[in-house]
Design goal:
The chain contains three helices and no strands. The N and C termini lie far apart (73 Å). It is elongated. The longest helix has 38 residues. By secondary structure, it is mostly helical.
Amino acid sequence: MYLVVIEEKDRLVNLPLSDCVEQISDSMEELSMMLEELKHLREETLGFQLSNAQTWVSAALTNEYTCLDGFEGVEGKVKSEVKRKMSNVVKITSNALYMINMFDESCGWILLDTTGQG
């Protein structure tokens, strides 16, 4: 009976952990695409490029929250460690989205300023 309980606990932790690894991998890919987009900004496509960057960072955030949601109902050290580390990742990703949004807003004003006084 004890073995069954241990196997059940392992399964309850391993499944969300496995899903989390996949979601983090997806987030890394999306953040890499965002960085590539931001490395090659061009004035004529700036709005489109920033929109793409916002979309990819938002998708990465969604993956990160989904990872955390997967541990609902799971207790123990693994959950608390994942939650602690993912909360740092979520903060950094949220900050990246905020900076892209601020850059987008400020560039909108710059692009609309036809007086040359920027």
